[in-house]
Write a structure and sequence with these properties.
91 residues; Serine Threonine Protein Phosphatase 5, Tetratricopeptide repeat; 78% helix; mainly alpha
């Protein structure tokens, strides 16, 4: 399962604070999860992309990805928390 390998690689890059590399792995994994129609893992991937973008200083992309998570699942607490921590609110 390539998508799981990509997620593992992305997580390893996050732990090493290699945010650009983590972003690349998440971007590769995202269409695979979408093709499986797995909204849970799609949401996790989008949320993690938001974190990687924020840590890279790309706050606009981070917020955009967290808002996509909330459009898929309005009760996603991780995305809500991330938006709140970066000064954005989602009603």
């Amino acid at each position: 399962m390539a998508e799981l390998t990509l997620m593992k690689n992305a997580a390893e890059q996050q732990l090493a604070a290699e945010w650009q590399k983590a972003t690349e792995y998440y971007l590769q994994a995202l269409p695979l999860f979408r093709s499986l129609r797995n909204q849970r893992t799609e949401g996790i991937t989008l949320n993690n992309l938001g974190v990687a973008y924020a840590r890279s200083g790309n706050f606009a992309e981070a917020i955009r990805h967290w808002e996509i998570v909330l459009s898929l699942n309005p009760s996603n607490e991780a995305a809500r928390t991330n938006l709140a921590n970066f000064g954005a609110t989602k009603n």
